[in-house]
Every structure is written in C-alpha cells, then in structure tokens.
Design brief:
- This protein has 87 residues and is an alpha+beta fold.
- It has 3 helices and 2 strands.
C-alpha cells in the first residue's frame, strides 16, 4: 500500500482460533489507524497482503465479527499461500 496516500489507506487485521467457526476481524481502520495496523503487523512478523478489493469487503465487517461464508474460499487460499511462503 505504499503508493496509496496515507489518508486513503485502509487496513483490516484478521485472527483465527480453531475454536471459532471462521476468521474474525480484530482491527480495522483508515488513514493513520491503517498505518498503525500495518506497522504493528510488520513489527510482529505478521504477513501484510495488499488486495484492495478484499480489504474493501472486509472493511464492511464489525470488529470481532467473523468473515461471511462468501469469503471463506478466498481467505482460505490466502492463508494457504502465506503458510507456503513461511515453509
């Protein structure tokens, strides 16, 4: 997201617990809040994936809300890809 002006940046953080039915939103925001979310992810070694269309969909969810079934496939594919990157 480095080519997007800071004021227009968006970020969503997801978490998954095997006791949950699906990943859930744990943070989201625009502008400086988005910058902070991204910075914290980098500092903690968490992968940051830049996909504006997906972020736009996830920004519609509330904090602590699980992702809807319509996004299961795309999020699952993303998690597999991240897992493979780390292996």
């Amino acid at each position: 997201m480095t080519d997007i002006p800071s004021s227009r940046r968006q970020a969503v953080a997801l978490a998954y617990d095997e006791n949950d039915g699906a990943p859930r939103v744990i943070a989201s925001g625009y502008g400086n809040i988005a910058e902070h979310i991204i910075e914290q992810a980098h500092q903690q070694g968490i992968h940051v994936h830049e996909e504006p269309a997906l972020v736009g969909l996830l920004m519609q969810l509330d904090i602590d809300q699980q992702i809807p079934p319509e996004l299961y496939q795309v999020i699952a594919e993303l998690l597999v890809w991240i897992y493979e990157l780390r292996s």
